[in-house]
Amino acid sequence: MKITQAEYVISAVGPAQYPVDGLPEIALAGRSNVGKSSFINKILNRRNLVRTSEKPGKTQKLNYFIVNHAFYFVDVPGYGYAKVSKKDKEAWGRMLETYFSEREPLKAVVQLVDLRHPPSKEDIQMHDYLAYFGHPVITVATKSDKVPRSKHQKHKQIIKKALGLQADDPFLIFSSLNGTGKDEAWQALEPYLH
Ligand code: GTP
Ligand code: MG
Questions:
Q1: % of the chain with per-residue pLDDT over 90
Q2: Whether residue 153 has its Cβ less than 6 Å from ligand 1
Q3: Residue 41 Cα: closest atom of ligand 1
Q4: For residues 186 and 1, is the Cβ–Cβ distance under 8 A?
Q5: Which helix (H) or strand (E) holds 12?
Q6: How far is the CA of 21 from the centre of ligand 1 (A)?
Q7: For ligand 1, atom 15, which residue shows the shortest CA distance?
Q8: What residues does the EngB-type G domain cover (predicted)?
Q9: Domain map of the chain by residue range?
């Protein structure tokens, strides 16, 4: 994919701030700190378009980025960050439910998991939640640079099994550090960008 334009648009907390142009949206979901923001930067070849952080919980709203004037990436705040108050967790849940239950331009969700570890209970819940709403899910196992290559396939199978994925469900191994999986990611996204 040739990237001719990539820009931050808006941080939305609800439908009042969602874009109204109807362009397709691809959402990024995953545990806090798993690498969602880094994924967006890497596949857009932009080092700092999306703010990333070693501190989890950086992304707190639905952050919209427009690409090639044609579609949006929506960076969704991560789950599983322990130091979040009950009140904030509930607000987060409502924000996601509103978005995932009724957002018509949402075409697919990239769910990021960590290739190093079996999926958490929350990863599995999120996967089921997205499937429940009928969204196509592309599972991306990231931070692959931290796993010896000889173990990639084994870890992949463990993750696929735990998430209940079928053999032909979209799944790819990724690294925001070295660009592994970038072309495959664009291939998987292509059907949803129009
Ligand atoms: P929240 O916004 O808090 O939900 O986190 P996030 O999922 O957006 O994670 P982010 O992209 O901010 O990355 C978190 C940390 O992991 C940062 O220190 C990144 O540099 C690091 N990181 C992300 N992707 C990779 C990767 O593929 N490999 C390695 N080695 N580090 C990564
Ligand atoms: Mg983030």
A1: 85
A2: no
A3: 11
A4: yes
A5: strand 6-12
A6: 30
A7: 54
A8: 22-194
A9: 6-192
